[in-house]
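Researcher: Please translate sequence to structure tokens.
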Amino acid sequence: MTRTREDVLRLIHEAGVRYIRLCFTDILGKIKGMSITRTEIEQVLDEGQGFDGSSVAGFARIEESDLMAVPDPLTFRIIPWEISGEKVAMMFCDITNPDGTPYDGDPRWVLKRNLQKVQEKGWTLNVGPEIEYFYFQSNQGTEALDRDGYFDFGTVDIGSQVRKATVNALEAIDIAVECSHHEVAPSQHEIDLKYQEALVMADFAQVYRFIVKQVAMQKGLYATFMPKPVFNQNGSGMHCHMSLFNGNKNLFFDGDDEYNLSKMARQFTAGLLKHVCEFTLVTNQWVNSYKRLVPGYEAPVYISWGRRNRSSMVRVPLYRVGKERATRIELRSPDPAANPYLVFSVMLAAGLQGIEEKYKLPNPIEDNIFEMSPADKEELNIETLPNSLENAIRLFEKSELMKETLGEHVHKKLIANKKIEWDQYRDHVSQYEQDKYLPML
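Model: Translation complete:
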């Protein structure tokens, strides 16, 4: 799909759009931006919109704060409801320096730069995320809307109704949805987007999170992508399905292989397994992320791969005859509160490293790892993901692959931000500590 400057101007005129939101993403994955009126859009499309980046997380220092937001016409979408009685559109922007060169701190540029490595080979990285979230009565607590479970249909379930309204809103702006359903935990839901090229999907993931929250708010509810909002319940993941294509050919498929995986797919998967601990800070960037990554709640903890094994970190969905294009691998460790531009970048980098260095993929593990003894796991050489934000920072900080993938600017800024978060968490005296220790010490 292509969309030109003229297409954008025509759509604005035909729909009677009054305001256009110029959006971009900080290093933590939060949408930032500014609004302009339709009278300004022609000049902004030609020249970009200047702004001060010094207060944006992970962006410029005060002495180098002048930046430009340059809209990408392909990302133009009209928001499917009026805001204060006006039609409003949104566009994602590339962030540049005043001289027009890409800004190193822009996560969208980080992904575009990494995708150039496969584009030069004539390949395309396709990604399809399964993004889970919770509905609650408000952001002041975790009161669930239902007591339903996996794939349950509630006849008068308000959560299911809001989810359906969300799907309608996504489809109204041409974001294709494959399916939606109730997840395992009470009040937990999932909407699966149809796979797209990685950059398009990263933009879609940002719009998805915006739409989910906005529709919930309109219905008097609160939607959260917090990885583990409720104790003793499953957390929310962002399982990422991925494959490499050359034109219409799926480079991950080999009909002669036992698992229908090509040598490239095996090497790519081996790269994910080898480097996952180095990039876990990106796929699981919050203190709360590590409350999800614990045994017993379906989230992957152990570094392994399999086909039917839901306790594996990487899963290879079973091949269906005649569906070669659907052959893919699924990384199950990322959570929905991560920055999709950076997540897709580090997954790609780890996979390409596996291809370039010809990593050997270990044997799959199909037994339930959660039920194995420590001796069994040791015998099979099953290692674990980092178990805290602190440990994830330490491994990320030492990784030359991550520094090269994200660039020194983002690598350094992300470490600094996460160290502050860890120190704040470490200093905090929790309710658990007061309940446990105050009566006895």
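Researcher: Any highlights?
Model: Residues 400-427 form the longest helix (28 residues).
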